[in-house]
Amino acid sequence: MTKKKILVPLDETDRSMHSLDCLKKLFKKDEVQVTLMHVSEIVIANDMVISNDEIVRAKEKGENILSRAEKQLEGYEVEKYCAFGYASDEILAKSKEDKFDAIIMTKSNKKGIARMIGSVTNKVLKNTQILVMIVPE
């Protein structure tokens, strides 16, 4: 049996960790390969210089988030992936490049119609051809 490839983007919020609970309810440990992903949104404008320290801190923060999530998926086949850029663009690029079967994301907790599922989730939904599962908070 070929394992399903699942991408789980996570941010620094506890709310994003709900995606892991969903994954564990839907898939047995031997059914999936999971890639946990964190995107540090370091945006450079007007030739602004970002120090090496800031990049190192952002990478460490991402690694900490992914390590915490990995512990919750003990027994699953897990890969961790950190990226820099716009979250939705990086998620879309990774999902296409590595040919994932599904993306599991937690919806935004921001208020208002435009923020119902979140701008990152919304952009991913509109621009991918694969299954996207949106987990309520």
TrEMBL record:
Domain UspA, chain residue ranges per copy: 4-136
Gene3D superfamilies for the chain: HUPs (3.40.50.620)
Top-level taxonomic group: Bacteria
Family matches, as InterPro entries: Rossmann-like_a/b/a_fold, Universal_stress_UspA, UspA
UniProt record similarity statement: Belongs to the universal stress protein A family.
Full protein name: Nucleotide-binding universal stress UspA family protein
Organism: Clostridium algifaecis
Native organism taxonomy: Bacteria, Bacillati, Bacillota, Clostridia, Eubacteriales
